[in-house]
Amino acid sequence: MLQAFQEAIKDYKVPPEKSLGRDLTAKIGSYVSFLIECRPLSISMGNAIRFLKSQIAKLPLTLSESEAKTSLQSDIERFINEKIILANKVIVKHAVTKIRDGDVLLTYGSSLAVEMILLHAHELGKQFRVVIVDSRPKLRGQRLLRRLVEKGLNCTYTHINAVSYIMHEVSRVFLGAESILSNGTVYSRVGTASVAMVAHASRVPVIVCCEAYKFHERVQLDSICSNELGDPDAISSVQGRVDVNHLDGWSDIENLQLLNLIYDAMPSDYVSMIVTDYGMVPPQVYL
């Protein structure tokens, strides 16, 4: 998205008798509206858009059009490098210290930050096993599993319905996050809270890895008041199983609705530590 904004700013021309600040802000707003029509914005996308609009508002009036555009493109590039790329590297540096030889590490779905941590720990020669817990309909964990196995990591793959069985083998849980809310709630892919709850009940430490640009001042206590709905057809069938057809034609049944939530809200009580690009902190810091 940010790279698309860079290209849009590069091609932008200030209309006659209009100021760059006001007109470009309106243009960015129209682009954002188009994105929202395609899919609701994630919290991190909203934070990035607010950053861009604030940089537009701060542009000195004395700058020429080309200078202003160059400045904005540099601001976006700096945001990408510092808040995303470098942030992940710092998170990896902190989190890898929590991995010891002989550990069994569990993760859910697929998180870029967690993947980088596991690969870096493997490169350092640490001996550990990874348990990847997955769930339908996305099955994102399969892609993570394939990449880790190709790099030579020792992996176990299971579905979320078996997480309570496998948890007794686990020494630490590493999870990614879509956002950290101001009351310490972790907003992440649906199923993450269930994994953390089982880990908490089993007294297994839960470490959440999240870049600081994903933090948000919003307070949320559950995953119903604000969420994103996925395609209901995605949970009405099982890919590759033509015999599982019990919900065929479900949309024609008047008193039946399918609920496919994309995210869930994990209470801070289930989180042992949050690893960010500013260091490792307990979730209570954000309360």
From TrEMBL:
Coiled coil: none
Superkingdom of origin organism: Eukaryota
Annotated family: Belongs to the eIF-2B alpha/beta/delta subunits family.
Name of protein: Translation initiation factor eIF2B subunit delta
